[in-house]
Structure formats: structure tokens, C-alpha cells
Amino acid sequence: MKVLHTSDWHLGQQFYEHSRTDEQQAFLDWLVDTLASQNIDLLLIAGDIYHTATPPASAEQQLYTFIKQAKHACPDLHVVIIAGNHDSANRIETAKPLLQLFDTHVVGRFDRQAPEQVIKTIATKNGTAHVVAMPFLRVSDISMTSDISYQSAVAEAYNQAIESLLANPLTEQEPLILMGHLHAKGGDISSDSERNISIGGFESINANIFSQHADYVALGHLHKAQTVAKSEHIRYSGTPLPMSFSERNYQHQVLVAEFDGKQLSSVNPLYVPRHQNVVLLPERGGADLNSLCDMINELKFDPNTPPSYVRLRMKSSETNSQFRAIIDEALKDKPILFCGIERVSEQAHQQNEVFTDLGQVEQLDPMTLLALAFAQQVDANEPVPDALKDCLAHVINSMDEEPNT
Q1: What per-residue string of b and e applies to 58-83 under the rule 16 or more CB within 10 Å gives b?
Q2: What's the rounded Cα separation, in Å, for the pair 131 and 177?
Q3: Residue 399: per-residue pLDDT
Q4: Phi-psi category of residue 350: left, alpha or beta, with phi > 0 → left and psi -120 to 50 → alpha
Q5: What per-residue confidence (pLDDT) applies to 210?
Q6: pLDDT for position 400
Q7: CB of 5 within 8 A of CB of 237?
Q8: What whole-number distance in Å separates Cα of residue 87 and Cα of residue 98?
Q9: What residues in the chain have per-residue pLDDT under 50?
Q10: Cα separation, 44 vs 84, whole angstroms
């Protein structure tokens, strides 16, 4: 049995006000071809299908058209989709009856009163797999109290689902696959793209919550493809294309897991072709105005490829008040999608860069902002009290929750 694991498509994303529809469509077209050429039996999409809870109609159309085309190219294909923290659980669930007609199983929300609902038993032409399709778990979905941490409540949700599945023993030929959309402890995050889905004392989940019975764990949320806890069978597939400039050097990929009966025999990456270049000038630090213009003029472009995304980093010491007009002239008539300018202040230690672009503030970790405010307004010599961290954590989590109506 061959399983393809992918996640974090973020359909509908506007990249610095530039539409990514064509770029994302190129990935979806490549994926349809890959599913066919690799003879994939089961496709797992581990959350963050959309970039926002209210995606544009064009993004939803992309998803549904992809599923239709994938089934046409691979009539025996089965698909399992879970909601991520960017997705609306209700929106994902709404499409369930129609998508079932295409052998596509979607799970938007976990019901602790009916944990068996996240279990999907998939009978492919090359064997049967049992999938625990656990979506992103909001506080309202799990049994979290003042005495039970978020991590413990998440572990309990997985245990409930697995226990309901193992009530009837599995055969030795049927693999157990867990899905999840969360931050597993120890995973690398990109610096400006991945908002902590829970913060404070329950921001990341220890990998030991995944049952010893699991033969493969397909995770979403972290954008960099990686293993977790040095376990080859616990994986993030990462995003199929860079979601920010900090991800420009990632090796974007999907993962193909092959099973020999229940045994996981291999996990191999398939690298996604880069449809549009993502360029940061300069790569490190900042540059003066003349140097930036020289860098722009030195860029090489392939006339047969789409325009490149370009973001500039200018030294904060640059004093020319006409810098924007000069840069616009340098960009003129070039196949560039301009993504703004960062003002960069070089500090004593070259590895540390301070960005004065206010657009970056919203992407800072809330706990970091709390620590800065506490140091400035209360006491610079004392750590932030745990009670205050917990208070902020619950506020952020309550903002992330969506109403059930």
C-alpha cells in the first residue's frame, strides 16, 4: 500500500497582496500527476487546507476541482482530510456528504462524546488501513480543566479514539495511521509564518502521546518537512510551497509512505517543483540604497517562468528620503512581484537583526510580546509570572475557538 502525506496548502493565501492562485494550481496539477505516476492508494491531507477560516470561493473551487481530477486520474484513490487551525471546522464538515461520493473523508471537529467518529477504515485495492483522522483540537473540543493541561487533554483525545478502534483487534496486515495538526515538541518552526496554535503552558505536544500502536503519524502545522523525536515514522510533510520569505530555502515536498502489510517499509520525499522564485535582497543583514538597486539590476530572469517575489532589506541608517521612488525605478519593467521593504538595524552581534517594519509586529510570538511589556512596565529583572502566562494563554485560545453555530 502506498500513502501520500501532505499538509498546509493554505489555499487562498495572498502573499503580500499578490494572489497565489496560479502558483497553487501548479502544485495541485503536479500532485494529480504524482498520484497517478506513483500509484498512490491513499492521500492524507493533514490540515490547513485553506489560509483563512473564510477562504475565497476560488480557493474552495480549487480544492473540489482537485479532488474531482485526482479521482478521474486515479479511480481507486481514497482521500482523508482533517481541519487545521487555519480552517473552519464547520466549513470543512459541510462538504462531507458530497466529498464522500469521491471516496474523500473529511473530519473538521473532534467530539469527545463520540471519539469513534474520527476513525476512518479505508479499504484500498492494496489493503486496508485504519486512520485516526484527528483534526486540530481547540480547547472547546477536549476535556481540559484547571487540573488537566492541554497536552494531557490532547493525549486523552487520541487515547479515546485509539481505544474505540482497538475494541476490535486489528489484523497483522492492517496498518494504523495517526493524523494530527499540532506542534509536536522539538519541531522546527519558520520564523514568521507559523502562529503558535496554542501558547503558554500548552504550546507544544510531546510526541509520546502518539500510541505505540501507530505505524505512521502524518502531521501538519509545521511548515518545514521533518521527523519528530528522531522517529522515522512520525513526520511533518511541510508546506508544498514557501508561505513566507523565511521558508524560501526549504526543500518543499510531499512524503510517500509504503507499507508491506502492517509494516512501514519506507518513507521517501518527492520534491515539489518551485513555480515562482522567492528572493530576499540581501540574504542577510541590510544594504544601502545604491547597493539594493545594484542587486535588483543584477537579478537574472527566465522569460519562460512567472514573475519572482522580491522583498528588500534596507539599512535603517539610509537617509535618502527619495528611496521609494528610486527603488520603483530600479524595479520598473522587470518581472518582479514587489513584496515591500524591511528597515534593518545591524546590532553588535551580526546574527541578531532588529526589524523596524511594523508589519512584522503581528507575527511576533505573543509570549515574547508579553515578556517585553512586563520587562518595560513592571520589572526587567524578574520573569513573567506563570499566572500571567496562563491568563494570556487562555485568552488567545478563546479567540481561536469558533462558535458551533
Answers
A1: ebbebbeebbebbbeebeebbbbbbb
A2: 5
A3: 47
A4: alpha
A5: 85
A6: 40
A7: yes
A8: 18
A9: 191, 194-202, 348-363, 399-405
A10: 13
